[in-house]
Design goal:
By secondary structure, the chain is mainly β. Helix content is 7%, strand content 40%. The strands form seven sheets. Strands 12-11-14-15 form a four-stranded antiparallel β-sheet, with no helix packed on it.
């Protein structure tokens, strides 16, 4: 699988001169199965990107449609601006996870999105850990034909997430075959937290929470909307917290997932 984190705005991809696929949209990831396009050696990948800067119907945040930035409008961006990587997968594999914390019941609900329905005898194994300690393991047998199986993990003495104490659980999801061998494995994470609105107040984990946010435009001097390094992302977050702030307002771009992690 050839994966793109994000490309602004329209991308067409060729592998060894053969068209692998195309994608429209500058803020979400996409992937192409390039198995049948590969050679034993000497492979080439070509990406054509088109971003019609004068088309104001395209979501652009504060990217200016003119050549130079002015007033409240920023430098426009075109091209690959998030990581690109290749990975090998089995014929059936985990595409993504949808993780929903349930603080009131001390549990977390996990939806596993597969690329195709499971076969007879295949099952999923879920393991949650906290600071290296195994918290919960559950093996869930799946019926043939299920492409989006659900599971619920119960967390005793749950460790809640907050900006002041951003605890993250590690989660491992394994797709296991009838012979009990692992077909695919995905490592992820989640924060056990509950956000709600009651009247004019925001509640975090059933307690009122007053937000003090920095307006973070998400631009860097030399790379515009592309974070130059992991350290640069961490620096911005640590600086905001050192000022006594507890969050960030991102109003013009869908940030790199690494920013959400840190």
């Amino acid at each position: 699988m050839l994966n793109f984190g994000a490309v602004d705005y329209e991308a067409i991809v060729w592998v060894n001169g053969e068209r692998a696929g195309e994608h429209r949209g500058g803020n979400v990831g996409f992937a192409f199965d390039i198995t049948d396009l590969l050679k034993d050696s000497g492979n080439s990948v070509v990406v054509r990107v088109f971003d019609p800067s004068t088309d104001r119907t395209i979501p652009r945040g504060k990217q200016f449609w003119e050549l130079k930035s002015a007033a409240i409008w920023y430098t426009r961006t075109t091209g690959i601006w998030q990581p690109v990587w290749i990975e090998t997968v089995a014929p059936i594999y985990v595409k993504r996870l949808r993780i929903t914390p349930d603080v009131d019941n001390s549990q977390v609900k996990i939806e596993t999105i597969l690329n195709q329905p499971t076969s007879a005898g295949e099952k999923l194994r879920f393991t949650a850990t906290l600071r290296g300690k195994n918290i919960q393991t559950e093996i869930s047998a799946q019926m043939t034909g299920g492409a989006n199986p659900f599971a619920t993990l119960h967390l005793n003495d749950q460790d809640l997430w907050s900006p002041e104490r951003p605890t993250l659980y590690d989660l491992r999801v394994e797709l296991v075959g009838a012979n009990n061998q692992t077909i695919d494995r995905v490592d992820s994470y989640f924060g056990q937290r509950k956000i709600a609105v009651q009247g004019e107040k925001i509640f975090l984990n059933n307690n009122p929470y007053y937000q003090k946010l920095v307006l973070d435009q998400g631009y860097w001097q030399d790379s515009t909307i592309t974070p130059p390094t992991d350290e640069a992302i961490q620096y911005d977050i640590k600086m905001a917290k050192s000022f006594g702030l507890n969050g960030a307002r991102k109003h013009q771009k869908v940030e790199d997932p690494r920013w959400l992690y840190w």
